[in-house]
Design goal:
155 residues, mainly alpha, 4 helices
């Protein structure tokens, strides 16, 4: 009779261990599935947001394709109409970068300083920074919004 008790005890322990393993495996599978679903959602959301931002940048490229001599005021109006803070909350500012050969740097700086199309007094303290001796320069000429992003102007 005692043998039956030991057998029942061992069978009970084995069934309990087997049940624990099954429950643990099921829980791991559920956690893995939830993680994969959440990861896929984050990846999709990120992809959609990046595509939206790329589309916005392409619209900016389109503006300059139509009018390669767009003024600072036109650029500011275009960016203002995009309503960045509402529609594109990831953007801090939008800049237009101008290619300037080294021999044209002084004339370019003077032209930006005198540009009063948006600010009445122009930008008398505009300088290209950091100073570098190289044949080609790519300078941030238009910067919207300017407030809070002044350090990028001329970079």
């Amino acid at each position: 009779m005692r043998t039956h008790g030991y057998i029942a005890f061992v069978v009970g322990v084995c069934l309990t261990a087997w049940t624990c393993v099954l429950v643990s495996d099921a829980k791991d599978a559920q956690v893995r599935a939830t993680f994969e679903r959440d990861t896929q959602k984050v990846a999709n959301d990120t992809s959609v947001r990046l595509q939206t931002y790329f589309d916005m940048l392409l619209s900016l490229k389109g503006m300059f394709s139509v009018n390669e001599h767009a003024t600072r005021a036109e650029f500011a109006r275009f960016v203002h109409e995009l309503n960045l803070t509402q529609r594109y909350p990831g953007f801090q500012a939008i800049q237009f970068v101008r290619y300037v050969p080294a021999e044209r740097l002084p004339a370019f700086e003077q032209a930006v300083r005198r540009d009063s199309s948006l600010v009445a007094g122009g930008y008398p303290s505009f300088t290209i920074h950091p100073q570098a001796s190289r044949p080609d320069h790519y300078v941030i000429e238009y910067n919207e919004p300017m407030k809070g992003n002044e350090n990028a102007f001329g970079l």
